[in-house]
Amino acid sequence: MKKWSYLLSGVLIGAVVATAGSAFADQIKSLVGEKVAGEYVVKVNGNSLSENAIVVDGKAHVPLRAVTDSLGVNLKVDGKTIQIDSSNNSSSQQANAEVKTVSGKYQGWPISKLEERKAELEKFVTDTESDKGNMVKSLEISSKKTESSSDKFAEIREKNVEETKKNIQEAETNIAKYKTELEQINKAIASLK
To answer: Has residue 83 got a pLDDT over 60?
Structure first.
């Protein structure tokens, strides 16, 4: 008799759990696998953000991090909870004033993000210039060896010289690109200060 009561209670508990689970699953709509029907440009205080909102299932989903950054509001993700703190109104108003003065590629970026990008670019420029200097030295050494020798490795050295020249050209292009972006960031930061 006890076996039957255990079996019956197990079936009842299983049925309750299964129904509750499916009812809960019906309440949660996942965006995974859904089609993006369109995009919206998001403007905060008249300024467009660098990221667009997407439309999925008839609803617009905005890039929360970009919105909170542009408003100067604190955003914290803790597990499956997103906490937004807007208690510091003076910094929020200051951030709004800052966003209004930046235009172009970096519009909507807070000053902290601009300074992070500036530091990255400065490191890229330094590292790439160092790499270029090493390649130039290597090229000079290889060129001298190629000119002064006629051994069986001369052809290989010539190929290496050509490849090094291409790499130097690529490094110079990257340095110019990084410096141009660095100038733009410096202008954006200056407009915020």
So the answer is: yes
**Cβ(121)–Cβ(181) below 8 Å:** yes
Residues 42/62, Cβ–Cβ less than 8 Å: yes
Q: What is the CA radius of gyration of the chain?
A: 30
pLDDT digits (tens, 9 = 90+) for 99-129: 444 556 777 788 888 899 899 989 999 999 9
In this model, does residue 17 exceed pLDDT 60? no
Distance CA 121, CA 30 (A): 38
Burial of 131 per CB tally in 10 Å (0-12, 13-18, 19+): middle
Q: Strands, DSSP E only, in 41-151?
A: 43-44, 47-48, 53-56, 59-61, 74-78, 81-85
Task: Determine the Cα–Cα distance for residues 83 and 75; give it in Å rounded to an integer.
Answer: 6
What is the amino acid identity at position 5? S
35-60 tens-digit pLDDT = 877 777 777 777 777 777 777 777 77
Residues 6+ apart with CB under 8 A from 98: 72, 110, 111, 192
Burial class (CB in 10 A: 0-12, 13-18, 19+), 108: buried
Q: What's the CA gap between 134 and 34, in Å, rounded? A: 50
CA dist 179 → 54, 59, 173, 175, 188 (Å): 33, 41, 10, 6, 14
pLDDT score at 68: 74
